[in-house]
Amino acid sequence: MQLAYDREADVLYLSVGEPRTAVSREVGDDVLLRVDPQTGEVVGLTVLNLSVRNISEMLPISIDLHETRE
């Protein structure tokens, strides 16, 4: 797992393995699930506006993996 924070953009990126091409699905307010478009595998998470968030309010994030597959 890799974490990266872009302070200028105020975005947290979490990748499972190396970052790769994915489609994003909004699963919460400014929280995006990153999914491999070919396999439907979850490959990461992007959190926008991280500095203004109360992390405890973000959890738990409900993710329906069946909705991510096409």
Structural key phrases:
single chain, 70 residues, mainly beta, five-stranded antiparallel sheet, 2 helices, 5 strands
What can you tell me about this protein's structure?
With 70 residues, this protein is mainly β. It has one domain. The chain has 2 helices and 5 strands. The longest helix has 4 residues. It starts with a strand and ends with a helix. The mean pLDDT is 83.
What fraction, in percent, of the residue positions are helical? 10-25%
Strand order of the largest sheet: 1-2-5-4-3
The whole-angstrom Rg is 12 Å
Shape descriptor: globular
Number of helices: 2
Mean pLDDT score: 83
Q: Return the structural class.
A: mainly beta
Please state roughly what percent of the residues sit in beta strands, choosing from under 5%, 5-15%, 15-25%, 25-35%, 35-45% or over 45%: 35-45%
Number of strands: 5
Distance between the termini: 25 Å
User: Describe the biggest sheet?
Assistant: 5 strands, antiparallel
Explain the layout of strands and helices.
Layout: E1 2-6, E2 11-15, E3 23-28, E4 31-35, E5 42-48, H1 55-58, H2 65-68
Antiparallel strand pairs: 1-2, 2-5, 3-4, 4-5
A few lines on this structure:
This protein has 70 residues and is mainly beta. The chain has helices at 55-58, 65-68; strands at residues 2-6, 11-15, 23-28, 31-35, 42-48.
